[in-house]
Amino acid sequence: MTNLTRRQSLALLGAAAAAPMIPAPAFAGTRLKVGALRFTSHAASFVAFERGYFADEGLDVEFEFFQAAQPMAVAIASGDVDYAVTAISGGLISLAEKGAAKVIGGALSEEEGIDGQKILASVAAFDAGLTSPAMLDGKSYGITQPGSSFHYMGSKIAAKEGVKVSFKPLNKVGAIIGALKSGQIDAWSIVPHIAKGLAGAGKVKIIGNVSDYIPNYQVTTVFTSANNAANERAKTEAFLRAFSMGADDFNAALVDKTAGDEAATEMVNLIHKYVYADKPIEKAEKSIRNGAMRINAGAALNKASVMDQLDWFKSEGMIKDSVTYETLVDDSYVKTIM
């Protein structure tokens, strides 16, 4: 059976129609900068670029890569980046409150039945008894910045277990990995392509699943400037259409595995251009496949999860009580999930 990408299928359909009737994209030549992390969880953007879905919408995309969520939010607010995908952070909420940024959709999600983010312990801490999240009391937990998704996850895990942890801000994911491997911090939580790779190499120990503590967690969102959300609707819709097509291809190839083995291998090779690109594909492939969590179809947004995150930020005194869901989100673009 031949498995076609959505773009290939559309091309075949288009061949049956008269070529002169096909209009040029509405935004032909529109240049965009898209913010991303070099994570498998950002694959929808990579697929949309590599398979020409952005180009089909007339969007000339260039990627700007970051090492944490909050700097990406600042780049959106300053206009250095047009659209981005990352976790909700205190910095993003603050910029939304100031009228500078807006969440417009959902991306990576924890989903029952799909292997998701892992809770990790350093080898030294594990050997000293940190063999489950219940043993986190008094331990150090790595985060990029206060108010990051790592901070949120660690707090929710600690609260459910009734323990207290000491959060250690280390600014960058790479710095957290180094600190965990060397035993300078005791614990962390991260997406599976990183977690399983580190554990498989014997550098850390997996002691739990984030989904056991935060079910249906909307891990990352699609966001843009408040100006784009309010005044550039057609362009924003074009971006979301292309992004969603990339997500569909990714899910079919590596999450639902309905596209066949050849499509899965092709997807791994595509993602490898952006994730673990410094490693041979033979070494990178397993980690890329391990990172295959659900990216929401149609960029649907889990409203209940976003509201839970806002409630946590308020409980920690990181944002004002007056901040609402509508302050952060313009969900007129996508379907919402409760």
TrEMBL record:
Any Gene Ontology CC annotation: periplasmic space
Indicate the segments forming the SsuA/THI5-like domain, all copies: 40-249
Major localization class: periplasm
- A Pfam family it matches: NMT1
Per the similarity annotation, which family is this?
Belongs to the bacterial solute-binding protein SsuA/TauA family.
What PANTHER family is this protein classified in?
Answer: ALIPHATIC SULFONATES-BINDING PROTEIN-RELATED, TAURINE-BINDING PERIPLASMIC PROTEIN
Please state what the protein is called: ABC transporter substrate-binding protein
